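hiii so my PI (J.) wants the whole complex modelled not just the main chain, which honestly fair. so below is everything: two entries, each one labled with what it is. i double checked the lines twice but i was tired so who knows lol
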Amino acid sequence: MRLAADLLLLTGAIFCFLGALGLIRMPDIYNRIQAGTKSATLGSIAIIAGVGLLYPEWWSKLLCIIGFLLFTSPVSSSVLARAVYLSGVKPWSKSSRSKLSSSKPGRQQKTLNTQKPLNTQGEES
Amino acid sequence: MFNRLNLHHHLFLFTVIFLLWLLLTGSVALDELIVGFFVAVVVSLISAPYITVFEGIRYRPTALISVFTYLVYFSIALVRANFDMARRVLSPSLPISPELLEVETRLESKLGQMLLANSITLTPGTLSVELRHNRILVHWIAAPEGIDLEQATNDIATGFEKHISGFLK
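here's the output for the full assembly
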């Protein structure tokens, strides 16, 4: 029992960590939302299930928490994505980036790359 | 006031509130049950006319089976989504080719569309962005080249829709 609980807690922690890593590695906000939502949801569920194994008398309340979590976390991320979409942010795409990076070599192009998303946002809004 | 549909609505609301009471109190002692019963009756009677989200529910015996198969299907999709995301995040080349595309749904009720959009958000590589009429705008992290509406609907929504339409309109 103790071992299963620890394994679940560890799994949850790993998924939460991967979510955080995804937030850093992903190129734009839509992908970041994706990485954040999915792993945070399953990670929290695994952690809650682990706590449920450690303290079996809490299971009913933990079940409530899981239920609310499953309903609210995708809604909140969809709302964020919708707000971003309505404010005119275009999704990052590989083709646009490869075009940019092949056009100009050298260090100058690096700054161009990082500023590109900001510029498009400014034009949209 | 109590025509057939209304009765179902009241009963469903009562069951939900009573179950929530049971889960939150976490005991099945007789006095808790009695208090919970009366609270659920009062709350469901007062709030029933104002709660319109549950309008889309299909009240029929097979709905329970659909709920169960939906939950199983959803859990598998959720776990797969996480491993998929973990693979993408951990691989050095970051294998993504994101795109915004539309998906069509046959579900008509607000609750059904919301459940579908939520499910899409939690499944491998997709995120619901906007919902208009019967179209859901989806951000797909690894969209195949040149995919059209019909194909995208097939790939993303149909699996869930099949299960959800068993218990929601």
